[in-house]
Write the structure tokens for this entry.
Amino acid sequence: AAGGDACGAGSSPAAPLGRAGGQGREQAVLETVLPAPAEESNSTDGAKAPKVNCEERNVTGIERFTPQILNVSQDLMEFLNPNSSDCTLVLFYTPWCRFSASLAPHFNSLPRAFPTLRFLALDASQHSSLSTRFGTVAVPNILLFQGAKPMARFNHTDRTLETLKDFIFNQTGM
């Protein structure tokens, strides 16, 4: 996504794309997720099993279904339970990137469509070690985690509510 549809994830708008402190980089290996065809011919019910089996979280007592935005002192790993099969969608963004800004309303509406999933957002320029760890060289970048393990990356350049919902459904079956 290094074309005209993403911003560099460095600490400022002037940071060169793809330079995120490359020494000793631990990078998560993720499967490339291709867009699903609009119509699948001769498909049967349940033709494709979901890739990630998410444990549905208990939503009793939750009144506001909105993404949680991590501040600079919060660590993503504190929010991801490695001993759980809960699924969390994490948005890496920067406040100055217009593509992050245009994605925000769609990402913000996802918790209402998928209340049993968790949604987190973090400023990639304030969490550069996480950006490096998970291979975020451009924003916006969305990763699906199961527990604390990254399972899939949203790779569409067409970032609409519909493509985001399709991605979640194709990965989780939810």
